[in-house]
């Protein structure tokens, strides 16, 4: 049932890598993030700000690690998978990780880095990430009006939850099989 949902096939191959990456992301991060989001919104009185980091850069950990892990395969086939968990951190913090060579930031990277730093420091100071430099309003997420900031080359406020079709699938799976736990 799960394999069919993600790959629309009964077997795995290099052709379904992007959808397999969605599956891995969902079970490791995305469904837990949605569960946490629901808990925060239900029990927290302070505003909740949600985001999806979609900016893909050759500087990202994921891009470099995929190239190291699969040197015999074209790394380009993984580009469609997009940014991965924690890829934004390379744009915020200097790292000294062995075997991952430093790549200087591009002009687009620098714009993104400035936006991230400004939004995160403004949020740390005020509890609200909005600042003039972003040129977009980052709306607080609510149960009635779910929304998130998509952080790509251009930042945009987006209505709804992250990955709704996949979250609804996991809601159904947990409802269907929760009696086992």
Characterize the structure shown:
44% of the residues lie in helices and 7% in strands. The protein is mainly α and 181 residues long. It has one domain. Strands 1-2-3 form a 3-stranded mixed beta sheet, with no helix packed on it. The protein is flat, with a radius of gyration of 18 Å. The two termini are 19 Å apart. The model has no long low-confidence stretch (mean pLDDT 87).
Write the layout of secondary structure elements.
Blueprint: H1 2-7, H2 17-43, E1 51-53, H3 61-69, H4 76-79, H5 107-126, E2 147-151, E3 155-159, H6 164-177
Parallel strand pairs: 1-2
Antiparallel strand pairs: 2-3
Protein name: Carboxylesterase type B domain-containing protein
Keywords: Glycoprotein
InterPro entries: AB_hydrolase_fold, CarbesteraseB
In the predicted model, the low-confidence regions spanning at least 5 consecutive residues are none
Give the strand line-up of the largest sheet: 1-2-3
* Percent range for β-strand residues: 5-15%
Number of strands: 3
Distance between the termini: 19 Å
Order of helices and strands: HHEHHHEEH
Whole-number average pLDDT? 87
The radius of gyration computed from the alpha-carbon positions, rounded to a whole number of angstroms, is: 18 Å
Count of DSSP helices? 6
- What is the total domain count? 1
Shape: flat
Major sheet characteristics:
3 strands, mixed
Structural class: mainly alpha
**Helix fraction bin:** 40-55%
Characteristics of this structure?
Carboxylesterase type B domain-containing protein; mainly alpha; CarbesteraseB; glycoprotein; single chain; 181 residues; AB_hydrolase_fold; 3-stranded mixed sheet; 3 strands
């Amino acid at each position: 049932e799960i394999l069919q949902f993600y790959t629309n096939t009964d077997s795995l191959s290099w052709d379904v890598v992007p959808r397999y990456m969605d599956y891995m992301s969902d079970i490791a991060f995305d469904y837990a993030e949605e569960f946490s989001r629901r808990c925060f919104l239900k029990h927290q009185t302070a505003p909740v700000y949600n985001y999806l980091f979609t900016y893909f850069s050759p500087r990202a950990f994921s891009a470099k690690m995929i190239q190291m892990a699969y040197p015999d395969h074209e790394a380009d086939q993984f580009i469609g998978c997009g940014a991965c968990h924690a890829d934004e951190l390379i744009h915020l913090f200097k790292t000294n990780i062995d075997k991952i060579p430093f790549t200087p930031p591009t002009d687009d990277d620098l714009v993104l880095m400035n936006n991230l730093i400004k939004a995160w420091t403004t949020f740390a100071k005020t509890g609200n990430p909005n600042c003039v430099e972003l040129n977009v309003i980052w709306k607080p997420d609510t149960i009635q009006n779910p929304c998130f900031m998509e952080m790509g080359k251009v930042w945009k406020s987006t209505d709804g939850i992250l990955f709704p079709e996949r979250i609804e699938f996991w809601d159904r799976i947990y409802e269907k099989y929760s009696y086992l736990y």
